[in-house]
Structure formats: structure tokens, C-alpha cells
Amino acid sequence: RLSRRGRTIIFSIHQPRYSIFKLFDSLTLLASGKVLYHGPAKQALEYFSSIGYECEPFNNPADFFLDVINGDSTAVAASKEDHRPVDTGKVAEDNVDSSVVDVLHQKYLSSSLYESTKEALGKVELGRGNKQRLSKQEHEITYANGFLTQLYWVSKRSLKNLIRNPQASIAQIAVTIILALVVGAIFFGVKLDRSGIQNRVGSLFFVTTNQCFSSVSAIELFIRDKKLFV
User: Fold this and answer.
1) CB distance 76 to 68 below 8 Å
2) If DSSP codes are grouped into helix, strand and coil, which group holds residue 31?
3) What is the pLDDT of residue 73?
4) Residue 22 is assigned to a structural domain of this protein
5) Membrane-spanning regions, if any (predicted)?
6) Same domain? 125 vs 26
7) For residue 32, which of 103, 112, 138, 121 has the smallest C-alpha distance?
């Protein structure tokens, strides 16, 4: 539904089934920090076939790509057999496995897909260079939605989390009520004189300090949501 509204969906997924894979428009394959393929998802099998890695019949394309990258596919195994040295040892096999990523990366760098991507990125960089000559206002960070919209959705999400995990909320409310009763009992019936003013200052200091320390628990939200965000 989001994609039909014109949104661009960036999806990181591990071994999707074919019914999910065929929904993708663009596919990017990465290994060891190197791009092995970036282009239309429908052309990925054709591209790998052109560089010598044929997908077996009835094989899931997503599984096939991972097998090729990890050096586990039949195509990679066949190339190992053809190029295996006479002195077959563990070190030699490790070298072959590590070179699969380098070979795929070099194949991609020499492909027309890379050239078209490089050309598109060049246009973006050129446009960005022209914008740098404009005023500083052009460089200010802007967002698709305003502050109130962001505040609304973040608050709604936090409220849902509180409702779904009532134990922590009930405990905080109970502690607040108990402290309120204790402070109210201690400073109950304070008179309007010099000592009464000092007592009121002490009660305000105690309540303010308690509120400051109790609000530190909100940091937990940032720690938990940071992991989710990353």
C-alpha cells in the first residue's frame, strides 16, 4: 500500500521466498562491503547467467544468489573443479572461496549496469554541486512531515508501547502515589510563618529532585528504540 502511494521502500531481507522476491523492483547484492549487483530484480538471473552462473530449474532466485555469493552453488563448485590446483590443500580452497566475491565484484564493475548506475550518480553529484552555490538556506535539513506530525506519531507509538506493557506503567504510578502520600504526610499542616516557608522550600526541592531522577527512566526508551532503529 505504501509503494502504491509513491513511497520508495528499502527492504533488507534474508532468503525471501519467490512470492516475496518477485515483488521487488530493484535488487542490490552486497558482500564484504562490495556491490555484486545493483539493478532491476527481474534482470538479475539473466545477468548472473551472462557471467557464467546458471540458476538451476525450480531453484529460488534469492537462495541461488546467496549460494553464488557464499560459493555454495553448483556453478561455483564446477568452476572450482576446473581451476583446482594439483596441490589441493585447505589454504588453496580458502583462497578460491574468498575470491568469489572479488570475481563477482569485478564482473559487476565491467557490466553495463554499473555504467548506467555510475552515470546516474554522476548526474546527482553534478546537481548537488550546483546547489552548493546557492544560499545556505538550501542546505538546511528538511523533512517530509512537520514537527507536529512527527510528535503525534511518536507519541502515539509510545502510548501503544505503554498500553502493551502495563507492568512498568502500573509500577511507576504506584511509586508516585506512595511518594506523594509520604511527602504529603510529612509536610501536612505547614503553618504560614518563617519555619513554614522553609518547610515549603524543602518540600518543593524534594519533589523537584524526585521528578528529575524519575524522568531518567525515559532514557530506557532511547536505548531500546536505538537498537530497533539501527
Assistant:
1) yes
2) strand
3) 61
4) yes
5) 170-190
6) yes
7) 103
Q: Per-10-residue mean pLDDT for the chain, 230 residues long? A: 84 82 88 90 92 88 88 60 45 51 91 89 80 55 81 90 82 86 87 86 87 78 78
Residue 200: domain span: 147-228
What is the predicted pLDDT for the residue at 187?
85
Same domain, 28 and 100: yes
Let me know: does 20 contact 3? Beta carbons within 8 Å. Answer: no
112 shares a domain with 9: yes
Q: Is residue 88 a part of any domain in this protein?
A: no
**Contact status, residue 48 vs residue 68, Cβ threshold 8 Å:** yes
pLDDT at 79: 53
* pLDDT at residue 92, rounded to an integer: 35
Q: Would you put residue 96 in left (φ > 0), alpha (ψ -120 to 50) or beta?
A: alpha
Same domain, residue pair 23 and 117:
yes
